């Protein structure tokens, strides 16, 4: 049975629990997120989804968080449906992160939505002012292992980011990207829409 089908079966239970969770203080969920590592595979996935639904700015259906995922500034993170975030990923939502539908983010990838303005010669680098810039990840995206996505990156729908690529600020049109910094290597076949 696929995750999507299983989700549809348990959706009424998820909605009921989500309503009850909405009555509880969010700090309770922020503090207990790390404890969800202790729960076995399917139960852990179920609980992490419920916690994400409570903590995130928005959270679609069938969102998978594997073990070891660290998230900060949940309230600035929007998650679409059918999203998979695998082991030991790091999401820092300080500047805002929006992830579309049908997105896979592989192991040990990072999304960091802020950087520092290091242009002032009179300021020690350590004390440079922070700049918050949102990250936007469109629909139908595959991000492979070890990718770093930095503040201001906008990855358009139907794109692949190869392993260990560094995606800096800018717009990345549909395609296959690789390298440091990430550069378009190839166009990607577009899906036919509505039978066209």
From TrEMBL:
Keywords: Membrane, Transmembrane, Transmembrane helix. It comes from the Bacteria. The keyword Oxidoreductase does not apply. InterPro entries: Hexapeptide_acetyltransf, Trimer_LpxA-like_sf. Coiled coil: none annotated. The keyword tRNA-binding does not apply. The chain crosses the membrane at residues 12-29. PANTHER family: SIALIC ACID SYNTHASE-RELATED. This is Acetyltransferase. It comes from Ahrensia marina.
